[in-house]
Amino acid sequence: MLESKEIKEIKTIIDLMEKNDLSVFEIEKDGFRLKLQKGPAAQPAAAAPPAVTLPPKAVTGSPETTALPKPIESKPLKEIVSPMVGTFYRAGSPDGAPFIDIGQTVNEDTVVCIIEAMKVMNEIKAETSGVIA
Q1: What is the tens place of the pLDDT at every residue in 62-105?
Q2: All residues at 6 or more sequence positions from 99 whose CB lies less than 8 Å from its CB, including other chains
Q3: pLDDT at 31
Q4: Half-sphere exposure of 80 (CA within 13 A, CB side)
Q5: What is the largest CA-CA distance in the chain?
Q6: CA distance 20 to 24
Q7: Cα–Cα dist 126/132, whole Å
Q8: Domains in the chain: ranges and CATH
Q9: How far is residue 49's CA from residue 132's CA, in Å, rounded to a whole number?
Q10: What is the spatial distance between Cα 126 and Cα 101, in angstroms, rounded to a whole number?
Q11: CA-to-CA distance for 100 and 115, rounded, in angstroms?
């Protein structure tokens, strides 16, 4: 375990790295080895090109044809969330059919995918009923 004196020395080295724009520092002393390395610096976002403004076009159609379409009312969506982290499999085998497709109706017991976690295949069920969007 490092002592507080050694931790202070490491913090001093980090400060020196920042002040002198160093990306890597490595030292080995009395069987103790330390390597500090900065990750890649965040690249500044590219400036967006200036927007081109065009003069407004004259409206030639009747008011009925230029009206905006009414927004489609949709039901709120529910996410199907895996209870674990792992590798997602849409089908039981590489050549097999997917468990579900968009537009398919599911119920609480419908298997929607497989999650592989720690070499164990876990079936994930919808746990709700509805239509896959």
Answers
A1: 555 556 666 666 677 888 888 888 899 999 998 999 999 999 99
A2: 90, 91, 92, 110, 111, 112, 113, 114
A3: 77
A4: 23
A5: 87
A6: 11
A7: 10
A8: 4-37 (no CATH), 87-131 (2.40.50.100)
A9: 39
A10: 13
A11: 15
As to burial, measured by CB atoms within 10 angstroms (0-12 exposed, 13-18 middle, 19+ buried), residue 97 is exposed
Give the lowest-confidence range in 45-49, 57-61, 80-84.
45-49
pLDDT of residue 42: 47
Q: How far is CA 80 from CA 87, 114, 125, 131, in A?
A: 15, 12, 8, 12
CB 24 within 8 A of CB 37: yes
Q: Which two tokens stand for residue 101?
A: 């497709």
Among candidate residues 100, 125, 105, the one with its CA nearest the CA of residue 115:
125
Task: Name the pairing type of β-strands 120-125 and 24-29.
Answer: unpaired
Backbone angles phi, psi at 56, to 5 degrees: -65, 145
